[in-house]
C-alpha cells in the first residue's frame, strides 16, 4: 500500500435537534445536472429528462442509453450533500417495461467516476422489473449522506428512466453526521473553492468541510510560519458534473477527499 492510498479516517458526531419524530423529505434532484453512460439519438434520450419534473411516461419524455458496456448507468449531481432516504423511479409507459430491473441505486459523496473515490453506498437494489408506466419508491436501508445518486443497470439492456426523485433531508436534520476522508499528500483538489478558514489542525479542517454541505474535499496548506500553528484550509466543491475533477501536485499541501 502506498502512502497515496493510505486511508485516513475520522468520525464526527453531532447531535441535531429534531422537532418531533418526522423528517420532511423533499425531492432534491429536480433540474439538477445529470448524465448517463451513453445516450441514444442525441437529445432524444437525454439524461436531463429524468429530472425535468415531467412525469409523462412516453419514451419521448424519458432517458435512453445506447449500446455500451454493462453496467449502464444514469446519475444526478445534487450540488451539495444531503441525507438521502429514498428514491422514486418512474418507468416507461409505452413499451419495454422489463428493461428496468436488476439495478442498484447508489449514493456517494464524490463523482463515482473519478479516480480516488472508491467508497459508494448502495441505497437499494431492485431485482424485478418496475411495471410499465409505474412509479416505485425504493427506501434506502438507512439514510445515506451524499451528493451523487446513480442508478446502475446490471444487464445488457437499455436503461430508461422517465423521472427520478431523490427524497432527502438537509444534513442538519440528521441525528448523526459522519465523515470519512482519504488523505492525499502533496496534492490539491481542483474544483470550486467555496471558502477558506484558518485552522490549527487537520481535524479542524475536516470538521469545517463536514459541516459545509457543498464541501466534498479540503486542501490543507503548511503552517503560516514555523512558530505558528494556524494553516490555511480550503473548502472545495469537488467532483461535480462539469467541474474540474483533477488534482494538482503541491509539495506543502495535502488534500482530504471526502469519500462518504
Ligand atoms: Ca421526466
Automatic annotation (TrEMBL):
Lineage, top-rank taxon, reads Eukaryota
| Calcium in keyword set | yes
Q: Which GO terms describe its molecular function?
A: fucose binding; metal ion binding
Show where the Fucolectin tachylectin-4 pentraxin-1 domain sits.
25-172
Q: Which UniProt keywords apply?
A: Calcium, Disulfide bond, Lectin, Metal-binding, Signal
Q: Which Gene3D superfamilies match?
A: Galactose-binding domain-like (2.60.120.260)
- Signal peptide residues are 1-20
Instruction: State any GO BP term from the record.
Output: regulation of cellular defense response
Q: Which residues form a coiled coil?
A: none
What the record says about family reads: Belongs to the fucolectin family.
Q: How does it assemble?
A: Homotrimer.
Q: What does this protein do?
A: Acts as a defensive agent. Recognizes blood group fucosylated oligosaccharides including A, B, H and Lewis B-type antigens. Does not recognize Lewis A antigen and has low affinity for monovalent haptens.
Q: What is this protein called?
A: Fucolectin tachylectin-4 pentraxin-1 domain-containing protein
Amino acid at each position: 500500500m502506498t502512502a497515496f492510498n493510505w486511508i485516513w479516517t475520522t468520525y464526527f458526531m453531532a447531535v441535531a435537534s429534531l422537532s418531533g419524530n418526522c423528517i420532511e423529505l423533499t425531492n432534491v434532484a429536480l433540474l439538477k445536472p445529470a448524465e448517463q453512460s451513453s445516450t441514444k439519438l442525441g437529445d432524444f434520450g437525454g439524461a436531463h429528462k429524468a429530472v425535468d419534473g415531467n412525469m409523462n411516461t412516453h419514451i419521448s419524455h424519458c432517458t435512453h442509453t445506447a449500446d455500451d458496456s454493462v453496467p449502464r448507468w444514469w446519475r444526478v449531481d445534487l450540488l451539495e450533500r444531503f441525507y438521502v432516504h429514498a428514491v422514486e423511479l418512474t418507468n416507461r409507459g409505452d413499451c419495454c417495461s422489463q428493461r428496468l430491473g436488476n439495478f442498484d441505486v447508489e449514493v456517494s459523496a464524490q463523482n463515482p467516476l473519478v479516480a480516488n473515490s472508491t467508497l459508494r453506498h448502495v441505497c437499494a437494489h431492485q431485482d424485478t422489473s418496475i411495471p410499465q408506466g409505474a412509479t416505485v419508491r425504493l427506501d434506502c436501508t438507512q439514510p445515506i449522506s451524499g451528493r451523487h445518486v446513480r442508478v446502475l443497470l446490471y444487464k445488457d439492456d437499455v436503461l430508461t428512466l422517465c423521472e427520478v426523485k431523490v427524497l432527502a433531508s438537509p444534513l442538519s436534520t440528521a441525528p448523526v453526521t459522519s465523515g470519512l476522508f482519504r488523505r492525499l499528500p502533496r496534492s490539491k483538489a481542483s474544483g470550486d473553492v467555496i471558502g477558506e478558514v484558518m485552522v490549527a489542525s487537520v481535524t479542524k479542517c475536516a470538521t469545517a468541510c463536514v459541516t459545509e454541505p457543498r464541501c466534498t474535499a479540503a486542501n490543507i496548506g503548511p503552517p503560516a510560519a514555523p512558530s505558528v500553528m494556524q494553516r490555511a484550509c480550503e473548502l472545495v466543491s469537488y467532483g461535480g458534473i462539469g467541474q474540474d475533477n483533477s488534482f494538482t501536485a503541491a509539495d506543502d499541501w495535502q488534500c482530504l477527499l471526502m469519500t462518504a
